[in-house]
Amino acid sequence: MRLSDYERKAQREIERWERGESLFGQALGFAMKPVDWAFDKFVPDSVVDSLTDALTQALSSLNDASAWTMAPDDVLSAARDLEIDVDSVEDLRDVPLDELDAVAKRFTSQNTILSMLSGGGAGLGGALLLAADIPVLFTVNFRLIQQVAASYGFPLHGPEYSPLVVSIFNVAASGSREAKSDALRELSVAAAAFAHGSGYKGRKAQGTLREQMGHVPREIAKNLGAAKLGQMIPIAGAAVGAGVNYWFTDQTAQAAMMLSRALYLERKERL
C-alpha cells in the first residue's frame, strides 16, 4: 500500500535516527567512560546479577497477562480523546500515522515524568534505595514500550513478543547503531507476519525467556547501573537519580516510537 507524504517523511526520520547518535548521547558516552571503568572494577558481579534478574523479571511478565501494567482501554481512551474512533487496539493499524503519533506522545510524556520523580526520590536514599529504584524504572519503561506499541495498533501480548521488547530496551540502554539495526531487523520479521496475517515468531523466540534474551539483559543492567552510580553520592544523589531516570525513559520513548512507527510503515507497505 502506498505511503502518504507524512509517512515518507517519517521513514526518513527513522533512517536518520538509525544512522546517527545525538550530541547529548555522544557527550554522555564520553562522560561515562570513567564511570564505566569504576563500575567494572569495583561493582561486584552479584550486584550486576541482581540488576539483570530485575530486568528479566520485568520481561517475564509477558508470560502472565494478569501482571500487565498497561490496559488496552487506556490506549483506546487516549485515541478517542483525539477523536479517533476505533473498536480495538488492532484497528489503530489502519489510522493515519500522524494521528497515531499524537496518541503515542501522550504516554511518553507522562512516563518520563513518573520515572524522573522515582529516581529523584530514590536518590535521596543513596545506595539503600538504588536497588529499589531499578525495578520501578524497568516497570515504568516496560509499560511505556507496551503503551507506545499499542498506540500504533500492536499490543505486545504473549511471550512471543519478548524479542521485540528486549530489542527496544537494548536500544534505549546502549543507543548504538548495532542495537538499532538489530531491532529494525526484528521488526521486519514482525511486519511481514502482521501483513500476511500469520503468527509472529521472533528470530530469537526459541527456548526459555532467559535463553531467548541471552546476554542482552546483563548488558542493559551494566549500562544502566553504571549511569546510576552517581545516585549514591550524598546530596547530589537526587539530581543524578532524577536525571538518569529521565534520560533512560526519554531514550526508551524515542526508541519505542521510532521502532513502532517502523513496524507500522513496513506492515503498510507489505499490504
Provide an overview of this structure.
- With 271 residues, the chain is mostly helical.
- The protein has one domain (5-270).
- It is 73% helix and 0% strand.
- Helix 3 packs parallel to helix 6, helix 5 runs antiparallel to helix 11 and helix 6 (127-151) runs parallel beside helix 11.
- The longest helix is centred in the last third of the chain and has 34 residues, at 237-270.
- Residues 119-129 and 235-241 have low confidence and may be disordered.
Please compute the radius of gyration using only Cα atoms. 18 Å
Largest beta-sheet characterization:
none
Count the helices. How many?
11
Number of strands: 0
Query: Can you tell me the number of structural domains?
Result: 1
How big a fraction of the residues is strand? under 5%
Name the helicity range. Answer: over 70%
Q: What is the straight-line distance between the termini?
A: 5 Å
Structural class, judged by helices and strands?
Answer: mainly alpha
The chain-level mean pLDDT equals 76
Keywords:
271 residues; 11 helices
How would you summarize what this structure contains?
With 271 residues, the protein is an all-alpha fold. 73% of the residues lie in helices and 0% in strands.
Outline the secondary-structure elements.
Layout: H1 5-19, H2 23-42, H3 45-60, H4 72-81, H5 97-123, H6 127-151, H7 162-174, H8 177-196, H9 209-213, H10 216-227, H11 237-270
